[in-house]
Amino acid sequence: MKFILRSFSYIMHPLFMPLLGVCIYFTITPKFVPESFMYAKIFAISILTLVVPILFYFLLESINLVSSKELSDVKERRVPLICQMGVTFLIISVIINGYEFPELYMFFIGILIASAVCLLLSFFKYKASLHMVGVSGVLGFIIALSMVYTTNYLQIISLLVIAIGLTAASRLQMKAHNMHELVVGLIAGGLPQLVVFYFYNI
């Protein structure tokens, strides 16, 4: 049981969440998207959200700015979060066109806001759960899409809610966070998605 719980800390790692949101979007969107175009976007986002942060982490580790991949010291989160914000800004500036994919554009705007909130909290020496930020951000995105498309995505939403519960249990079991940090991470990740879509719909 402990192994299963711990596995969710890796399966639902924050690095995977932007790509998960993008893949779900292209799966459920009613808009026609040519396959070659879709795969090109997914590939570019994969490079920027997975490969670049991993290489950047090894760079930070080599110069002793981070001590572990868990970033257990709240001060160690600041540079990676700034990197995350830079990558996200690059995606919304170059990769995702706000006219072609306004929903994905809003998704990454929400990610940018959530990253900024976590960065701000780190300066107050508060360690919100980045795992919860990531998975709740995807959940908020799918809930927003269900309202935009007026379509029931209850199955996906239910799976994400279960994933949130298991991820939270995993982080508690590993003693990486307390309940308060998990709840703050949940709000910091999910709320920006709903807020940006609310203003987009206006």
Note poorly predicted spans.
Answer: none
| Strand element count | 0
Helical stretch tally: 8
Determine Rg (CA atoms, Å).
Answer: 16 Å
How far is it from the N-terminal to the C-terminal residue, by CA? Answer: 46 Å
Oligomer: single chain
Residue-averaged pLDDT? 88
Largest sheet properties: none
User: How many structural domains?
Assistant: 1
The fraction of residues assigned to DSSP E strands is under 5%
Estimated structural class = mainly alpha
Order of helices and strands: HHHHHHHH
Helix content: over 70%
The geometry reads as globular
Written overview of the protein:
This protein is an all-alpha fold and 202 residues long. It has one domain (13-201). It is built from eight helices and no strands. It is globular and about 45 Å long.
Write the layout of secondary structure elements.
Elements (H helix, E strand, L loop, with lengths): L1 H10 L5 H12 L6 H28 L15 H18 L6 H22 L6 H19 L5 H20 L5 H23 L1
Helix pairs in contact: 1-7, 2-3, 2-5, 2-6, 3-4, 4-5, 5-6, 5-8, 6-7, 6-8
